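Chain A, query sequence.
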Amino acid sequence: MLDALIQTLTTLVTTLRDVAPIALVLGFFQVVVLRQRVPHLKQVLIGFVYVIAGLALFLVGLQEALFPLGETMARQLTDPAFIYGAEGQPETIEWTRYYWIYLFAFAIGFSTTIAEPSLIAVSLKADEASGGAISSWPLRIAVAVGVALSIALGAFRIVTGTPLHLYMMVGYVLVVVQTMFAPKEIVPLAYDSGGVTTSTVTVPLVTALGLGLASTVPGRSPLIDGFGLIALASLFPMITVMGYAQGSAAWAAWQKKRTTDALATMGPQQQPAQAPQTAHEADMNSTETAPEMAAEVAQLKEEGEHEVQADYRPGDRRED
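Chain A, predicted structure.
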């Protein structure tokens, strides 16, 4: 109990030391550069206290729970007795036997990314800035699927021992190709999505999984093979977010084409009836310009005068 309290206080002091430069920079620009008082100073100070306490407790929880849990799960899932059963471990590693590791990596990557606070903040800002055109939940799911695929692929890389740079080269080539064809509005957001995934929740669990897996798979080095999952986790969300945008655009174009083709094959009587136009709408849809309409009115007026003159004969009495 005393050790846990000492560790908590130590982490609290470390967190305060890490947050202090941020507070100094913000205070300097607000007071010295802008020469304005800090608005709602009391609320700001209370918020800083919450930030420091929350970060300290979060770091303690990582060290006491999440890190050991990730390493334990990786060790148990890669245990030869669990993978090969009574057969015993063969001389060469059979990567197909590690399917539970791949499923666990996919699930842990998806779940941690969905709960990532930085991703939630970015998705909400994207929804607000786009006026609802980019919804928060679909964006978070697209990013989470990218991280899940990257962690599963990273686990496969550790099991097979293949070089990391091959995956990175192929992935970035795919990102460059997608960038040329993806909607321009989604490209910067897709790039930012790759950065927000490597934050407070995802990094500790993914790192623990990679180190635990590399330390238990025979012939793997934790230093060489254990790291690299974070790099893949930053790469794949860019691919999935741009793929989601391209897929949505293709789906919308297909739906529009399908509707157009359906209306083209329908007869005039089968097509949906349109509401009758009002006089104002008829005038707006008219192809005649203002001078043409004025000339037509003048012509009609002149024809009317000629008709009156033709009908009038001398000696006729006009009735009032």
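Residues 77 and 101 are 6 Å apart (CA to CA). DSSP finds twelve helices and no strands in the chain.
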